[in-house]
Amino acid sequence: MKWKTVSTIFLVVVLYLIIGATVFKALEQPHEISQRTTIVIQKQTFISQHSCVNSTELDELIQQIVAAINAGIIPLGNTSNQISHWDLGSSFFFAGTVITTIGFGNISPRTEGGKIFC
Which PANTHER family does the protein's record reference (predicted)? Predict the structure, then answer.
């Protein structure tokens, strides 16, 4: 390919990425900020209503819950009856995503607009 063609393709791809990044920022950032504000208020409310728990203890509990969720465990209700996420079918699906490089990561749109745009 000629240098001019390669440069043009490169600039088009970069422009496409910038436009996409701008759209996702506009769609997702307000929701993220709203969620962050809500959780800070909920933590403050919980601490003020439960004097037996301090903010350090609450933060430690939240960190443990986040670690459990990141490990695929949803710690709601009676967790002893939950089935494993690593049964044969789920493991087969995971192996398929590995070899096809789909790569379901943890960065994905959370809003309906972001999901539709994606």
Answer: POTASSIUM CHANNEL SUBFAMILY K MEMBER 2, POTASSIUM CHANNEL, SUBFAMILY K
